[in-house]
Design brief:
Two copies of one chain form a homodimer.
Chain A lengths: L1 H34 L16 H11 L12 H4 L46 H10 L9 H10 L3 H8 L9 H12 L7 H6 L8 H12 L16 E3 L20 H4 L7 E3 L21 H13 L5 H12 L20
Antiparallel strand pairs in A: 1-2
Helix pairs in contact in A: 2-6, 2-7, 4-7, 9-12, 11-12
Chain lengths: ~350, ~350
């Protein structure tokens, strides 16, 4: 009898707790909805509508090394799907061991950003794919004509281009290559428990994750890391309060968006990265100079917000960030077979 | 009425043809069974029994770049599954752009061979995986200890090693890494229409493919390319009738197995490669010096058999070889998600 009564008391307390918690949770949910919102099903673009045929072809190109100058580079080299579409290197290494200027961000959810690349010098994922094939440190091909020649040599691609771009008379072009890759990338949305929460399922996040979300909001991380992508919607100076290189282990000082615009006000300005799957995409920052998420959060507090976050605050934020690790679309996890060279 | 009678006559002729053909087909089937036989379901080894847990872990390691010296090399780099587990390069390029001494053969069905590597200097797939991690032109790690250290740093692997090797007190070892990779590779069997034929389904091969098989046998290709793997069971001099480099586009003369044994009789001797999926794994030969299957077959006729095969014979053999392009196990086409570095 004693035991049963104990259970009843605990149950009452528990239910009361849930009920108390719920009010707070409801407030948090409203905030989260305002600041973030859930991920869309796909990241659509009027310029490049998604079709099954384009996605199929784009996924094949994602693994295609034969259109790189040394035959070793495909999109997948710097964005391996199994490593959450980032390569784990400080800076990616492309054809003939050339080092890329910045860290390779994950391409999951990347199409939802205002632009691509850390300094926003790619308009969208299609532009990124197109420029990558002739990028000296990436695929390194000498010209678009050379890429088209190779695409035409692999006979199996002809009919697939035709299916994906039925209106085009001569569909085997780099522009269509880029559209196909872009269409594939536009499907790479990775919803997590956070999205279930934002959609109203209050128990989708654990108490610790909710505490972390609250800290993330209260600490003002969300000033920049907002939208369903938790970032990717604006540019911001890296090192608002202090120069970033005094805290990171950067080996060089990167002038950021200044390289593109030559405006003094763009010095050390970078696109705010999306934080979806951030747990899985170490190392951090534009130069991959910091290995651990804990350190990255601590440094961000210090130099972006001018706050010395204590251990428990940093840990709370890290706990929340881990709730952004999402489910990868099943189709993206299936390797396509590529046509033969013969 | 005329039309119907025509159809009847054609049908009778067709059925007669099938019936005449069948006798020949039965003979061909018997020959094929004697020379080749169908692929097994898996390539088992008493030394490394296959288990679900080992295969799961081995497949993860197949994509693991973080155990290479420059963080860019995984098994998948030289054996990308979508390209039929070969990389399409003349010679594979490993860490820090180092060129491997020979062409990367597909790892599909590779565990069924007498040994691994072109010159047979790896005992089996486990030995290959183990030696690869410290191979200077492949993963390039300085020592097995260094590999084990990295494996231990990725915390997520600990429990998976324990599951795969439950009897081991300290299961995170390079030997167990190699066993896991080996177990995965032992599942990579790719049966094709040829196996259906060998198992008795006479119509599984087209008439052209059957003609090609007959030519393959009559021309004596099967003297070396025998067993279910259509090769991989013996060593043979490359260039029995004439030096190979007079026909291939080889840039260097490779002394083959002589490098291992230092026996004069092993000069220019290589392991006979398996021909499963050969259509998909251009370029050909130990140095990838020939791009097209047609040329590879013609050269083989000339220098191995002393025969000038005419165009139609070469084409017949190529047609047969294409029937060896197989189905890749569904599980091997699914990318595993790897644990985070954090």
């Amino acid at each position: 009898m004693f035991k049963i009564s104990t259970i009843i008391i605990i149950s009452i307390l528990f239910l009361a707790g849930v009920s108390f918690g719920s009010d707070e949770d409801e407030i948090l949910l409203k905030q989260a909805n305002k600041i973030f919102g859930p991920l869309p099903q796909a990241m659509v673009s009027e310029k490049n509508p998604i079709s099954r045929q384009k996605v199929k072809l784009g996924k094949m190109f994602f693994y295609e090394t034969r259109i790189s100058v040394d035959g070793t580079v495909s999109c997948s080299r710097c964005h391996p799907i199994g490593l959450y579409a980032a390569d784990g290197l400080r800076k990616s290494i492309g054809n003939n061991c050339k080092v890329n200027p910045r860290n390779a961000p994950t391409i999951f959810n990347a199409a939802g950003q205002i632009s691509e690349h850390w300094i926003g010098n790619r308009v969208d994922v299609e532009d990124q794919a197109k420029q990558a094939v002739i990028g000296p440190p990436s695929f390194g091909m000498p010209s678009y004509e050379a890429v088209e020649k190779r695409l035409k040599e692999i006979k199996g691609y002809g009919p697939l281009f035709k299916e994906a771009f039925p209106q085009d008379k001569d569909p085997v072009t780099v522009d269509n290559f880029a559209k196909a890759v872009g269409a594939f990338e536009r499907t790479l949305v990775t919803p997590s428990r956070f999205d279930a929460f934002v959609k109203g399922e209050l128990t989708a996040l654990s108490d610790n994750q909710k505490r972390g979300l609250k800290t993330f909001v209260e600490t003002d991380c969300m000033t920049c890391h907002s939208s369903a992508y938790v970032g990717g919607q604006m540019y911001q100076k890296f090192g608002v309060f202090e120069p970033y290189w005094q805290y990171t282990r950067s080996k060089e000082i990167d002038e950021g968006r200044y390289v593109v615009t030559k405006n003094e006000s763009d010095k050390y300005v970078f696109k705010v990265p999306i934080l979806r799957n951030v747990e899985m995409t170490s190392p951090y920052f534009h130069d991959g100079s910091v290995d651990h998420l804990y350190d990255a959060v601590r440094i961000m507090g210090k130099i972006q917000l001018g706050k010395d976050l204590d251990k428990s605050r940093v840990e709370e934020i890290v706990t929340f960030l881990k709730s952004l690790t999402g489910e990868i679309p099943e189709d993206a996890l299936k390797i396509p077979l590529l046509p033969s060279t013969n």
